[in-house]
């Protein structure tokens, strides 16, 4: 008679749920993190232990961050306006010496 991997008691045919290549008692087949009762084949596995697909398995063993962060890129800016291109010129700084009238009032020598 097979034994349940969770409680180590005998599993009778009427109460058997087969998953991960083992026979479990229906109440014993639970997510290792949150304790949600799982169905046969409707869950994820890590190191022989059952986990619900979402959110437990994804949060614990799924990819972390985003594609941009995983590729060693700088974090995305949440600003509504895009940053200026590196070749932009600071126009107010360029015309600062021309006075109130702008370039027209400046006398060139």
Automatic annotation (TrEMBL):
Record's keyword annotation contains NADP: no
UniProt cross-references to InterPro entries, sorted A to Z: Znf_LIM
An annotated GO BP: intrinsic apoptotic signaling pathway in response to DNA damage
Xref: PROSITE patterns: LIM_DOMAIN_1, LIM_DOMAIN_2
Domain LIM zinc-binding: from-to ranges: 2-63
Keywords, sorted A to Z: LIM domain, Metal-binding, Repeat, Zinc
Pfam families listed in its UniProt record: LIM
Protein origin, superkingdom: Eukaryota
GO molecular function: zinc ion binding
Protein name (record): LIM zinc-binding domain-containing protein
Lineage, uppermost ranks: Eukaryota, Metazoa, Chordata, Craniata, Vertebrata
């Amino acid at each position: 008679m097979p034994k349940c991997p969770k409680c180590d008691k005998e599993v009778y045919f009427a109460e058997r749920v087969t998953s991960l290549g083992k026979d479990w008692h229906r109440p014993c087949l639970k997510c290792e993190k949150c304790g949600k009762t799982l169905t046969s084949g409707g869950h994820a596995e890590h190191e022989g232990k059952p986990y619900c697909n979402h959110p437990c398995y994804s949060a614990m063993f799924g990819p972390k961050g985003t594609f941009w962060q995983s590729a060693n890129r700088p974090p995305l800016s949440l600003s509504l306006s895009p940053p200026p291109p590196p070749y932009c010129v600071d126009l107010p700084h360029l015309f600062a010496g021309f006075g109130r009238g702008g370039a027209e009032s400046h006398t060139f020598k």
